[in-house]
Each structure stands twice: as structure tokens, then as C-alpha cells.
Amino acid sequence: MDTQAVTRHPVLDHASLGQISLVLQGGGALGAYQAGVYQALDEAGIEPDWVIGASIGAINAAIIAGNRPGQRLPRLREFWARMTHAPLTQLFAQAPVFGQTAAAAMTMFGGLPAFFRPNPWAFVGIGLTPESAGYYDTAPLEATLKDLVDPEVLGTCKPRLTVGAASVRTAEMRYFDSRDTPLTIRHVMASGALPPAFPAVRIDGELYWDGGILSNTPVECVFDDMPRRDGLVFTVNIWQPDGPEPADMAAVMSRQKDLQYASRARAQVVRQKQLHRLRHIVAELAARLPEDARNDPVLRAMAAYGCLTRMHVVRLLAPALRGEGHTKDIDFSPDGIRRRWEAGHRDTLRVLDQQPWTHPFDPLEGFILHETEHGTIVVEG
Predict the structure, then answer these.
(1) Other CB atoms closer than 10 Å to residue 368's CB: what's the count?
(2) In Å, how far are 16, 76, 273, 357 from 368, measured between CA atoms?
(3) Segments of the chain scoring below 70 in pLDDT
(4) In the predicted model, what is the mean pLDDT of the chain?
(5) Tens digit of pLDDT for each residue in 202-243?
(6) Which of 17, 205, 263, 280 is exposed most, by the fewest CB atoms within 10 A?
(7) Distances from the Cα of 359 to the Cαs of 44, 235, 346, in angstroms?
(8) Which residues of 172-184 are buried (b: 16+ CB within 10 A; e: fewer)?
């Protein structure tokens, strides 16, 4: 995590690319990778115009959007420095063979000092309310965020912040957006309230759980935003969409989490590519109509579905670390956090060196995907 800062020249033509967005997936301790991604962007002089997140992605996003540029990276470092096991748990984690299992068990039973602590009432099943029904109390996380997020900066909408949460009552995804309403730490807490571990958070009379339940990769709110704008979208994925067939129960649990929380991100990309191409085709066809046809109210209404905006989407994927298992999302060991942070930093520097948004593309495409592995572009178009 103490990757040495490197002064780099900006590599983006902001004026031609348009809005720069950073989309952060949920995934507990895996979110340290996202902090490394932001470090590389910061070193290159790239500050996002819009940050979107769910769960731990919402927390990282709030720290970025809730601080002035010079404080964002230091505050991210401070947050992840606090997100470590207690000293005794760290000692167990270093033990051979069963060290990581023992450390995970101690985290589940003892909590994480700056994040969550056990809620004994939940285990005995008495004295609970809708706002306290969770195996852990997240008051420590709220206190941590109050230390590290400046509410005045968070309210300026510079950058714009969007966090996703799931309505407990209606099972609908709700995106809380600083463009539309002032956001607070409570909105961020709602986005990270993963049941049954963490209790729901009430906002404006409604209870909300972790947005990752419904959409752990909240990139659709960028694609569906109105009015549409040209832009460059960095979407940071921390769960593995591909993996081997599991051969034991630990591997089954690990693969199940990957499938669940990768949240059909690839299917979203395919759908959006189709939609944006159709919008471009509609716009091109409308431009070829005779003038009298273009003035026809019915045809004008049809032509309004066309759009010539263009998005370059860079999908970063966190690598699987050697030895990680189904408890990887609660691996808050200093070594685990450091390795994930460094991987995010290293991968993003490689992407910035390649500048894939400058590569040739089909002009009919409104959505150009740049898929990466270990920071190397593997799919474009």
C-alpha cells in the first residue's frame, strides 16, 4: 500500500473524451484494489467527474468525493490502514496451514475495530428493531467515515457521487445521487448494509440494504444517465467472472460468491453495446431523411431515440491472489490489503500507458469496450 508516488503527465484529452467516470464494485476487503486504481489515476493528474459505487465501492467513492483533491489519496490510505485485523488476529493469520482460516474466524467472532463489532442481541434473537437486526453493529464504520469524509465537500457534487442501495420493502434498486439531493454518510452506510451481517439503514422513512444484493456493479446508472454525454468510464471489478470448476466445499463457496457478486457485468456490457449502436444507427438514418420528413412530428419523435454520444469503457479486473479462498472478502490482513492495493495501482498504470481510448474504433459504435487482464488490453471494440 505504500507504493511510491510517481509524477506522471495527464494522458487524457478531457475536452474530446467528455465526462470521466469511476465505477466501483462491492466486495469488502477486495476494495483495496480500487484504492490502488485511484492512486494511479491521481498520480496521472486524472480526477473523475463522477464516482459511483456499491458497498465497499460506495465507501471508497465517498472518501474520494468527500475530500478535496489533495486529501483524497491520504484519506483513502488512512481508511485502509484502519481496516486491518486486531494485533492478535494478525498474529494468527501468519500461522502456517490454518492461519488464514483462524484469522477469518476471529474476524467473524470478534469483528473489525474500525468497521463492525458483534451484536449479541442478534445471536439470542431478542431486543431487535428493523434498524438493529444484523449480526454486527456498524457504528464503528460510521465513526470512521465521519473522521475521513468532509460533509461540506461531499455536498458540493464535485465530483458527483452516486451510491446504490436496495429497498428492503420493494426490492428495487435506488441510486442516491448528489446531483439530485445532498448525500450524507447515512446514504453510504445504506449502500454497505449487507444482510444478515449488517442491519438496514433507514432513509426518508424507507429501509435500505446493500446495493450489491441487486446490482453489485452499478455501471448501468452511467449508461442510462440523462442527458447522455460522451465519456470515459473506468469500471473496477473485484470478483472473478471466470474460474475453475470447484472440487471441494471451500471452492464451491468461493465460486458461488464470485458468480453472485460479479453481478452479470458482462451481460450489461453486451446489452449496452447493442443499445448504443442502435442509437447511432437511428441518428444516422434520421440525418439522411429529406427535410420535409425530418419536420414530420411523428418522425421527429422517432428520431429523438437516436444519439451520437460515445463512451469508452475500460474494465479493470482485480487478479485472484495466490492462496485466497471463500473468505477473501474479509481478508483484512495488512498483507492482503497491501497486495490488492499494489495490484490495482500496477494494473491501472499499465492501462494508462496503453491509452486504449486513442486506438481506432468503428465510428458506428457508441460504446467502445476496452477489456483488461492484469492491466493489459485483451478485448477492444
Answers:
(1) 21
(2) 15, 30, 8, 8
(3) 1-11, 86-103
(4) 90
(5) 999 999 999 999 999 888 889 889 988 999 999 999 999 888
(6) 205
(7) 19, 19, 21
(8) ebbbbbbeeeebb
Name the nearest CA neighbour of 327 among 30, 80, 112, 26. 30
Distance CA 117, CA 184 (A): 22
Write down the pLDDT at residue 380: 86
Report the pLDDT value the prediction gives residue 147, as an integer from 0 to 100.
Answer: 97
CA-to-CA separations, 110 to 121, 126, 295, in angstroms, rounded: 15, 20, 69
pLDDT at residue number 366:
86
In the numeric block, the cell 464504520 is attached to 141
CB-CB contact of 106 with 85 (8 Å)? yes
Using an 8 Å Cβ cutoff, are 287 and 376 in contact?
no
Which triple of cell numbers denotes residue 83? 481496516
pLDDT in the model for residue 90: 58
Q: Which residues contact 65 (CB under 8 A, 6 or more apart)?
A: 51, 153, 154, 159, 160, 161, 178
CA distances in angstroms from 52 to 61, 177, 293, 335, 361, listed in the order given: 6, 9, 41, 27, 26
For residues 64 and 60, give the distance between their C-alpha atoms in angstroms, rounded to a whole number: 6
pTM value? Answer: 0.91
CA distance 17 to 360: 14
pLDDT at 93: 58
Matching residue, cell 452511467: 222
